[in-house]
User: What shape does this take?
Amino acid sequence: MRRFAIIGHRAMSQGKLPLNDMAGGAGRMDVLVRALMASLMTSHGFRNDTEVMLHLQGGPGPNRRIRIDGGAVKGIHAEERSVAGQIAKVLRETSPPKGRWIERSKGIWDSRGDILDTIEDWSESTIIALDANGERLWLDNSIIPLQSNSLSTSSEVEGELVVEGIDVGFILSDDKPLEVELPSKVILRSLGDVWLQGHMAIGICHFLLDEGVSLNL
Assistant: This one.
């Protein structure tokens, strides 16, 4: 399973989402929408082996988490307003208590909490915080194979989606640095010296996993 936790420090957590001002009035919700699209979408479909956790921390009210399951989600299309519209539907609802998840629409779940709660939820995963100052995500002797050998795959078995291979979670912040102290189990890894935009970094992570590049875990 591939998991992406996106931190929106100013992203609104409840109320009427201003679809025409996602960069301002919504607290840089545009950054989260692009990250969500990069995480879940290919050119002609969805990644069934991928889950996204949006962290909305800009208020009003408590921090909120929206979990989107690429293998189950419906009603989202490859257009930013369509994605934002699904988030807007969730924000109109009162967030449930921490530890309780409500499915707001097919494949879209809603709860309270922050990144530390997500790390606890991902206890069985290898968790990586992307940080330009960390070691490289790939090994020194890694090569890009001439034939793709994906590190995770999904298939349908008797009507059920089965995901096999690597179980890895990536933590990415928005344009603000991640200031919370992360547990020791979280490893810091870099995609290079240049600070990339979140959706670009996600695309590189998918590429490495899709091609089967040896990772520095």
About this structure: The radius of gyration is 17 Å. The chain has a mean pLDDT of 93. The chain has one domain: 2-211. The domain at 2-211 is CATH 3.40.1280.10 (Alpha/beta knot).
